[in-house]
């Protein structure tokens, strides 16, 4: 799951057992349960 909201995208995906990637430019402390990227172009490096 790739999403921009921890509450609406990331947490539900993690609860379902999915891998999750947060895309945000905000300075959010990274949680080890999911990856964080700043722009969509970084996604292909992960995949």
Blueprint (SSEs and pairs):
Elements: E1 2-3, H1 6-15, E2 21-23, E3 35-37, H2 43-46
Parallel strand pairs: 1-2, 2-3
Structure, described:
- There is one protein chain.
- It is built from two helices and three strands; from the N terminus they run βαββα.
- With 47 residues, it is α/β, with parallel strands linked by helices.
- The chain starts with a strand and ends with a helix.
- The chain has one domain.
- A three-stranded parallel sheet has the order 1-2-3, with helices on one face.
- The chain is globular, with a radius of gyration of 10 Å.
- Helices cover 30% and strands 17% of the residues.
- The mean pLDDT is 93.
- α1 links the parallel β1 and β2.
Number of domains: 1
Residues in helix, %:
25-40%
Task: Work out the strand percent.
Answer: 15-25%
How is the biggest beta sheet arranged?
3 strands, parallel
Structure summarized in a few sentences:
The chain has 47 residues and is α/β, with parallel strands linked by helices.
Defining traits:
3-stranded parallel sheet
């Amino acid at each position: 799951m790739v999403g921009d909201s921890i509450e609406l995208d990331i947490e539900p995906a993690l609860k379902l057992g999915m891998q999750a990637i947060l895309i945000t430019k905000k300075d959010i402390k990274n949680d080890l349960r999911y990856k964080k990227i700043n722009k969509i172009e970084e996604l292909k490096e992960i995949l």
